[in-house]
Amino acid sequence: MGVLLGWVLFCGFALVARPDQAAIAGLILGFGLTLGLRRNIAISGAMAVLEPIGVVLPLLALRHMALAVCPDLAPWLGQWQAWELAALVLLYPVFLAASMGVWRAEPYRLGYHPVPVALMVLGLCLYALAMTNPFLALLAVAAQAQWVLRAGSSNWFDHILHVLVVPAALFTLLGRLW
Asked: Where do transmembrane segments lie in this chain (predicted)?
């Protein structure tokens, strides 16, 4: 939660300060407020609404801040192609619907079992290698590590996906049009 709040503050501070100053101020205040106000109803409510956070949202927020501070990191952090973002915007809602029982196939169940998770992580890592997107491999492995350590949800999909990724991908696509 500290990273997410820090990222929101970074976005605000970046309007009036250099990116490096905005990132430092945002993260310090984000973590400080999250720790200092962890029993506050606003922080608790935000955590309840965003749960399960997993690794995807914090890593995307840190990636955004890192690229704002140091654009030279782009080759190391990768970039998604427009078609990949469009596929995510279209397919993730279908995955969510299937996971809620709209169809007989429930792909969400695969996230509870080690062999399918290992195969999905391997597949994502191979795809990341082919697309030269090391960030995607980092995301897949970090989600698996969090899942193996039982930090949070017992389903791997909760660590690597989040419903807020859809609007983020949509806004990124729209931003590329302008």
From this structure: 41-62, 83-105, 117-143, 155-174
